[in-house]
Prior knowledge:
about 100% helix; mainly alpha; rod-shaped
Amino acid sequence: MIFAVEFVQFILLLVIIWFLLRRTVGKNLKERRERVAAQVEEANRAGEAYAEARAQSAAIAAEARVEAQRIMEKGRADAEQERRAGLKRIEGEAAALILQAQQTVDAEKNKVISEASEQLVKLIGVVARRFLEEALTESERRSLTQKLILDRLKEMEGTTSQQ
Length: 163
């Protein structure tokens, strides 16, 4: 019987501890469940915010790609325009250089022709003088010289009277 009383006391003690623990632990468990539920809700909101931020990031990246493509296209167009302008400028400079070179060549050509003509006239004069000295006698040379001088004087009179 003592055993039955002790057993009942033990059961009673267990029931009291169970009620006390249930109240204390139950309150703590309830608070913990609420905290966990709040944290789960906060995690869900953070996940949604992350998804939204990721979507915004993707949109910004897409917009940046489009803008970068536009900038590259504009850069290419500007570079092509600059290249064409440079080519025109270089072609103009080249044409000016070619014209200048052609003028220089023409001037040098005329100078060479003039010098060659002068030397040819001198050479013809020397050859003619030597030929005449060898082929003609002294009296024939004098007669020819007088005739040439008279012809030249007549030419000069004709040009001065025409003016």
